[in-house]
From TrEMBL:
It comes from OM182 bacterium. PANTHER family: PHYTANOYL-COA DIOXYGENASE DOMAIN CONTAINING 1 (PTHR20883), PHYTANOYL-COA HYDROXYLASE (PTHR20883:SF46). Signal peptide: none annotated. One of its GO terms (molecular function) is 2-oxoglutarate-dependent dioxygenase activity. This is Phytanoyl-CoA dioxygenase family protein. It holds the Pfam family PhyH. Keywords: Dioxygenase, Oxidoreductase. It comes from the Bacteria.
Amino acid sequence: MSDVLNINITDEQKRFYQENGFLSIARITTDEEIEWLKTIYGKLFEGRTGEEKGFFYDLARPRGHEGRDELPQVLGPDITIPELRESIYYKNAKRLSSQLLAVDEKINVGGHMIYKPAKYGAETPWHQDEAYWNPEVFSNGLSVWMPLDSVTTESGCMQFIPGSHKENVRWHRHINDDPLIHGLMTDDVDSTEAIACPLHPGGATFHHTRTLHYTAPNTTDNPRRAYILVCSGPEKKRDKPAYRPWQDEEREAMKAAEIDVEYL
Ligand code: NI
């Protein structure tokens, strides 16, 4: 198992990623670390950690909604628990991302966790991560997605549209066309082209900022706990911002509803 400390991206894996915009690997951390992460995960979600600051919310329902969450998310778990930055997962994600991005310089790492409890909750609709990101720069990053549970199509493993990273950011809209719902979706996708990536706990997928991806609602008896690290190299400023009006719509709706969060 100590081999997991020394994994590297092979040339073949790099070629696959460049061609398809995603990559799946069987191991990025140890079973022991997964067990440790499950205890942290439980505490963060049960405690709704950082909810008042906007670090815990439901991706699929309006801010401040009543009732059970359908797609709860914790942002920046390593801000609350800095030990996460010392984890094998974190270190491997950072190193392997620098290999995939061909960036030797400092890699910036951000993180979030998305929880799909057993037999409950929403899909994560088709989207490109870059639709959420800063329109003033050319993004130079990828997301590493690691499940703490075995994942299948039925429990919400990652699904990707191969090659979609070579195209532009598509038109996105907020789920239910409600700008108080943070989750974005695009209708501009042919889901028959999707490739599903089932994984065992401690495996991981990598995907480019523009790769279209989706996860189904969890209809199984097991939870689907995912810990995602977003790894970015230096970004280049655009001459003029990319057109992503869904971001302005959300900011305006939040302001009108007098919802004030540190992070949007
Ligand atoms: Ni995403």
